[in-house]
Specification:
By secondary structure, the protein is α/β, with parallel strands linked by helices. The protein has a single domain, classed as 3-Layer(aba) Sandwich (Aminopeptidase). Helix content is about 30%, strand content about 25%. It has a five-stranded mixed β-sheet with strand order 3-4-6-5-7. Strand 1 and strand 2 form a beta hairpin.
Length: about 160
């Protein structure tokens, strides 16, 4: 896991190497100011669970990196690595933007079902691209496609 975190730190340095003042970053109809972090709740829930997406908007201009972990609920190492990465990013020293989905398949994770949602029986990994009007699994796939992948200059999805 230490290697994953070091690799991601190196990737962030390489991908976001440009200089200049970064302006705000618009995410889910809200501005994330330069040099700050904002946490956006995922508006998809069964009423018993929810998660959030942190957005790190660097103080310097650069590209946008999208990262997802936990598309399968048993991907413990990437989920933990994403949590450690989130705790280590300093947006005041960052160039560019990081959109970090630390746990995509929250229903599966909380239901201890490694590959499919125990509520809908759908595999999030097999639901891309999707629609915003389907099951919660399909809504999460749509949200990741629309708000993370489509906004990213580079996209990183780690699986075990």
């Amino acid at each position: 896991m230490e290697g994953i975190i070091k690799s991601l730190h190196f990737s962030l340095l390489v991908v976001f190497g440009t200089a200049g003042a970064q302006s705000f970053f618009l995410f889910h109809h809200q501005d994330v100011k330069s040099g700050t972090t904002s946490h956006f709740p995922v508006p998809i829930s069964t009423g018993q669970d929810s998660t959030f997406i942190p957005i790190f908007n660097g103080a310097k201009n650069g590209e946008t990196l999208g990262i997802t972990a936990g598309v399968h609920a048993c991907e413990y190492a990437p989920i933990l690595a994403a949590q450690k990465l989130a705790a280590s990013i300093n947006p005041e020293r960052l160039s560019g933007v990081v959109i970090l989905v630390q746990l995509a398949a929250i229903e599966s994770f909380l239901g201890r079902s490694p590959y499919v949602s125990p509520v809908y029986g759908k595999n999030l990994n097999r639901s891309f691209p999707s629609k915003s009007t389907g099951t919660n699994t399909e809504k999460v796939a749509d949200l990741i496609t629309d708000r993370v992948i489509s906004r990213a200059d580079s996209f990183y999805r780690k699986s075990i």
